[in-house]
Design goal:
The structure holds 2 protein chains of 2 kinds. Helix content of chain A is 81%, strand content 0%. Chain A has helices at residues 2-16, 25-34, 40-52, 57-95, 97-102, 104-129, 136-148, 156-174. Chain B has 7 helices and no strands. In chain B, helix 2 packs antiparallel against helix 3 (41-53). Chain B has helices at 3-16, 24-35, 41-53, 58-101, 105-131, 137-153, 157-180. Chain B is flat, with a radius of gyration of 21 Å. The chains are: A mainly alpha, B mainly alpha. At the A-B interface, helix 1, helix 2, helix 3, helix 4 and helix 5 of A face helix 1, helix 3, helix 4, helix 5 and helix 6 of B.
């Protein structure tokens, strides 16, 4: 039963997430609230691990979420079912290549999906920030990370490394 | 290119793909255009644009487009299985190890810090999306209304996408009708 649910949820992610690896986070966030598969804390761990291992972040996060939920079979179910919608769409679109991107409805939908993706990610950022907002140490680290990328966004691993080191430093200082 | 060869090329790409979307296009271009001369640069950029406009994971979409172009449906499936091969085992391994390490105080401190990095990365992704969009009245309208819906009604992402994509298409349709007149 858990496998069917996993397949259903990750199929939905594959079908409805737009705009790169981090676009799957709002869905994973929603899953953590809907089912008891993993906690909010485990979600940030999942995203962190997904970002520092090779491979696309969105797929890695699915693999990890499946592993947390139902072991290795679960990770296989989540990973494959997240990619099935893409597989079907790629095959259809490959056949109609030009027509697809010139279609009025497709163009309008894509243009609308950008602000929606922004809103989805913003709501997750608010959800993850609000329990931390009174923690001065956490806010300080966040401010440093954001200042470091004032000009341009760097490789995700860069932030993970710095933040990990700062996490240990904070622990050593406050001990 | 044989299916086995295609699989192996994608296993390699999956293994060296690190750090998100920036590297997809250069890695695949060097593999399929420069090294093997199977595709043109123009085809690659077309596929990249299409991969971004389809739902799902961009790197996976891109791989499947190329797989399909080279070997049809089985090529697309093989590309999909190849690209996840190494990442899959890496996650299973790391996830299993991490589970037994989490009780350690220092590991917890690292994870606490990394959790903040994840928030920063999400915020930076929003900034990037924001900068790459044409921000007109339409953009702000959809952004604000869908954000408010998410915050106050706790709807699922899928429901919000459905509702606002329909609103967006309707809006564009009315705009087009007015322009045509």
């Amino acid at each position: 039963m858990i496998y069917l649910l996993l397949i259903f949820e990750f199929f939905k992610i594959g079908l409805f997430s737009f705009g790169g690896g981090y676009a799957t986070i709002p869905f994973l966030y929603h899953i953590s609230q809907q089912y008891n598969w993993y906690s909010l804390n485990e979600l940030t761990q999942m995203i962190a691990v997904a970002s520092i291992t090779p491979g696309p972040v969105g797929i890695n996060a699915a693999t990890y979420a499946g592993l947390k939920t139902a072991g290795i079979t679960g990770s296989l179910a989540a990973t494959i079912s997240e990619m099935i919608p893409s597989l079907i769409l790629v095959i259809i679109v490959s056949k109609l290549l030009k027509k697809f991107s010139d279609n009025f409805y497709v163009k309008s939908a894509i243009e609308t999906l950008k602000p929606i993706s922004c809103a989805l990610l913003t709501s997750v950022a608010i959800g993850l920030l609000s329990p931390q907002i009174s923690d001065i140490k956490a806010m300080l680290i966040l401010a440093i990370l954001l200042l470091l990328s004032w000009k341009s966004k760097k490789d995700p691993i860069f932030y993970m490394l710095i933040a990990g080191v700062m996490g240990v430093a904070v622990k050593l200082i406050t001990q | 290119m044989s299916l086995l060869k295609l699989f192996l090329v994608y296993v390699k790409i999956g293994a060296i793909l690190l750090g998100g979307g920036y590297v997809i296009l250069p890695i695949m271009t060097s593999e399929f255009v420069d090294k093997r001369k199977l595709l043109t640069t123009e085809e690659m950029t077309d596929y990249f644009a299409l991969a971004q406009s389809l739902p799902g994971i961009i790197a996976a979409n891109m791989s499947m487009f190329i797989g399909y172009k080279l070997r049809g449906k089985s090529g697309a499936v093989i590309a999909m299985l190849g690209i996840i091969f190494v990442p899959f085992w890496a996650i299973v391994l790391l996830g299993t190890i991490l589970g037994s390490l989490v009780s350690n105080n220092y590991v917890q401190a690292v994870l606490w810090g990394v959790g903040i990095a994840v928030i920063a990365l999400i915020m930076l992704t929003i900034r990037e999306l924001w900068q790459n969009s044409q921000r007109n009245r339409f953009f702000y309208f959809i952004f604000l209304t869908s954000l408010l819906t998410l915050l106050f009604f706790k709807l699922s992402p899928v429901a919000v996408i459905f509702i606002y994509t329909a609103v967006g298409i309707l809006f564009k349709y009315i705009q087009k009708r007015r322009m045509d007149k």
